[in-house]
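Problem: given the chain below (120 residues), write out its structure.
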Amino acid sequence: MDYEWNDTQPIYRQLRDRIVAMILDGVLNEGDPLPSVRTVAAEYRVNPLTVLKGYQQLVAEQLVETKRGRGMFINDGARDLLLSGEREKFLTEQWPAIRATIQRLGLTPNDLLADKDKER
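Solution.
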């Protein structure tokens, strides 16, 4: 994970988002354990309660489960659940602006699919 935090959102949320990205990228797979709260807090020099809050968000979203005495683990189906949610979020929040820009610039599907490096 990246060590840099930004000021745009709380650290616990950034931590949650980094774990989500790791699941989507296949770095963390279903059944894999999350690093302990203490380990993450020490490594990234943040309060353990901050890490715990980020982990609790993942539990609330049913992406992670707590196994008493063993730790937290990525749930079966977490990646599929995330893909579905992230696709919907992209289509409703980001795509309209991207589509408007494409139309404004008069780009065609061929323009978008062309490999610019091969054209040079």
